[in-house]
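hey can u check if this looks right to u? its 251 residues, i copy pasted from the old doc so theres a chance i mangled smth
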Amino acid sequence: MSAPVFLVDPEFVSDAALESILELPKAVSHHMSVMRIEPNELCELVDGRGKRISGNLNIEGEFVVRNIAVEALPSLRIDVAQALIKGDRLENSLDMLTQVGVMGLIPWMADHSVVKWQGDKVAKQFTKWTNISRAATEQSRRSWTPEIRDPVTSPELANRLSTYDHVIVLVEASGEKYSGVTSGSVLLIVGPEGGISARERELFGEADSLTLGTSVFRSETAGVVGASYLFTQSGEWDSQSGDTMKGLSNA
């Protein structure tokens, strides 16, 4: 079984060295206590930016660093612009997208989105999304955690398209064959259950289209399936099973 993973702030492990002893943040220490982590039991700290530190607790409850590794950025880096939808389905999608391995999540107030983030709700939802992505990072044992970006309207999202190497819109049917991508930055746009409006199709006119077979997925499922497809067809998941970590060890 893989060692349990605990997410810490990058500043906490920025100066960590082999055999150094770290006094854990209270929240992490409490989490380990709840999970009944025993002294000398192997566990890992990740900073959400690629650094992974293996070690164990001593009898004082401090973390002893045994190995430090740094995982390079994946060759295919996917951000998902997810249209806002009602209920907790959006939170479930966020959890699964984090597990799949996306690098960024953009709350998108699409034309057909019933839900809108405004005023105090923005900060509240941002905190909730951050907590969900952090928990999913630990559960999936990732070294990288996705960045939660500011919510955008459709014109604001369109203005960001040029910052990506590839932009892909998930659609129910497309007359064009998707050519595939293997590397670079990708923006995957996932519309609401009401679909993408005519105005948005015009705004995103230069983007590629991707159809996920003959099934019509719910909005909260489409992004997960789409990202999984991109990672699979690019070979990214195959490359991650190899030697992607560079690090130091006391062995």
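The CA atoms of residues 193 and 218 lie 7 Å apart.
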